[in-house]
Design brief:
Strand order of the largest sheet: 4-5-6-3-2-1-7
Number of strands: 7
Helix content: 10-25%
Oligomer: single chain
Number of helices: 2
CATH topology: PH-domain like
Structural class: alpha+beta
Radius of gyration: 14 Å
Largest sheet: 7 strands, mixed
CATH class: Mainly Beta
Strand content: 25-35%
Order of helices and strands: EEEHEEEHE
CATH architecture: Roll
Shape: globular
Distance between the termini: 48 Å
Number of domains: 1
């Protein structure tokens, strides 16, 4: 019997940049969420990730409408935004389901030991905090 795919935290950087991020990828290969800010190095990424995973039940969601009339979520810990959703949603109910799925999957996901390098022309855009 084939082994079921598991959710995975990936650590990554963009080619030509110094900072690093993490993201969680669901078993179907879709990114669910990512670190809200650029982190200095792999040690900082892993420390941030450990904190988010350990405190996932305390994460406070914020769901808001975007200028394009779609929905986005972010999660804060002790007033600091630590996770951004990876995609906009067409309905609020789907947006709520997406952040809840992140919280659930974060407790099951493994951490990929490889630091991935993506070749893109831009860094993940910061999302404006509503706090």
């Amino acid at each position: 019997m084939a082994e079921r795919p598991t959710p995975m935290f990936q650590v990554y950087r963009l080619a030509g940049t110094g900072g690093m991020w993490w993201r969680v990828v669901s078993p179907n290969g879709r990114a669910l969420g990512r670190s809200a800010s650029e982190l200095a190095d792999a040690a900082a990424v892993h420390a941030h990730l450990d904190r988010v995973i350990a405190e996932r039940e305390r994460l406070e969601p914020t769901v808001r409408v975007t200028p394009s009339h779609r929905w986005r979520w972010q999660l804060a810990l002790d007033g600091e935004v630590v996770v951004h959703g990876s995609a906009e949603q067409d309905r609020r109910v789907r947006c709520d389901a997406a952040w809840r799925a992140f919280v659930e999957i974060a407790g099951q996901a493994q951490v990929d030991p490889v630091v991935h390098v993506f070749h893109r022309g831009y860094a993940p855009s910061p999302l404006q905090s509503t706090r």
